[in-house]
Design brief:
The protein is built from ten helices and eleven strands. It has about 300 residues and is of the alpha/beta class. The structure holds nicotinamide-adenine-dinucleotide. The site of nicotinamide-adenine-dinucleotide (NAD) has 25 residues, from α10.
């Protein structure tokens, strides 16, 4: 029987554990605060930010929100980040990407205080993770690690294949899988848009992480029997639904579920974990900054 990996359930456990930690921090006068900065009028970005604010409210994290006119000069965003770096009520800072073309995204990421960089994209935090001394692990791969842990998926000595090499998913996922630590120690292959024979690699995978953003590009014939399949893809495709679209993954679920040993659905797999791990990183940041020890889930 294929196990369906329930991201909603694991994320709910994590949020419950965080609520206890947040209460303890609040008792020590150190309630966590997350600042979200939006410099865009893209409806999808607006939705992502409002979801993050709602997630914060639900667990007791104070959310601070700043909106910047997308036509404003880049300096306005950099000044905002500098102000949040200095604000003791703000423990974590998230600038919603993408920023407008006239703003240098890398410069924005470098401007965030690395101790408040809850996305884990500042070069200092990327370097620390690669060196095996992570401060903030990026939310999506961190959430995937929690799923693997929860479902007792053995990564040590396993063949892991990551499809995708983005800075937010593919690269950090591969880096975590090769670390000499629990949930690492996998022999890891990274496939990408120039990989010559994708299926030849995916068929070797005991653990497959698909993060290419190509709808249903991996089907059951491309999997090893019993593999653990983590589908990161969230692709909006036209469909005869109320909204006129549906969300599907990078894996063709119907054919994959008959071959895989365990598989994440889309939606309800990795997505809720990404959201939960942003809260986790914010709580961890608050406990570090206030020097108050808390148990994290
Ligand atoms: P991206 O576009 O930045 O990167 C995609 C990567 O896939 C690239 O490195 C590219 O080399 C590789 N790729 C593209 N086509 C390929 C092909 N045909 N064969 C092999 N590799 C190919 O995307 P991203 O930001 O990493 O996101 C990937 C997907 O995951 C998207 O669908 C995105 O919406 C989704 N996503 C989901 C979550 C979540 O929480 N579930 C979080 C982040 C991203």
């Amino acid at each position: 029987m294929t196990e369906v990996i329930d991201g909603n359930a694991v994320a709910a456990d994590i949020r419950e554990g965080l609520t206890d930690a947040i209460e303890r921090l609040a008792d020590a006068d150190a309630r966590p605060g997350l600042a979200t900065v939006l410099m865009s009028d893209d409806p999808a970005s607006e939705t992502y930010v409002s979801m993050k604010q709602r997630d914060c409210e639900e667990v007791g994290i104070t959310s601070h929100h700043v909106e910047i006119d997308p036509d404003a000069p880049a300096a306005e965003l950099l000044d905002t980040v500098a102000g949040l770096n200095d604000d003791p009520d703000v423990n974590g800072i998230l600038v919603q990407m993408p920023v407008p073309d006239h703003v240098d995204e890398r410069r924005v990421l470098r401007a965030i205080d690395p101790a408040k960089d809850v996305d884990g994209f500042h070069p200092e935090n990327v370097g620390r993770m690669v060196a095996g001394n992570a401060r903030f692990k990026p939310c999506t791969p961190h959430g995937i690690q929690k799923l693997l842990e929860h479902y007792d998926v053995e990564t040590e000595g396993a063949e892991a294949v990551v499809v995708g090499r983005s800075d937010i998913v593919g690269k950090p996922m591969a880096n975590l899988l090769i670390q000499k630590e629990p949930l690492g120690n996998a022999t890891t292959t990274v496939c990408h848009s120039r990989t010559a024979d994708l299926a030849a690699h995916t068929r070797e995978a005991d653990v497959l992480v698909a993060a290419a953003g190509v709808p249903e590009m991996i089907d059951g014939s491309m999997l090893k029997g019993g593999a653990t399949v983590i589908d990161v893809g969230i692709n909006r495709v036209d469909a005869d639904t109320e909204k006129g679209y549906e969300l599907i993954g990078d894996v063709e679920y119907e054919s994959a579920k008959d071959v895989a040993g365990a598989i994440t659905p889309v939606p309800g797999g990795v997505g809720p974990m990404t959201r939960a791990m942003l809260l986790y990183n914010t709580v961890w940041a608050a406990s570090e900054q206030a020097n108050v020890d808390v148990d994290l889930p």
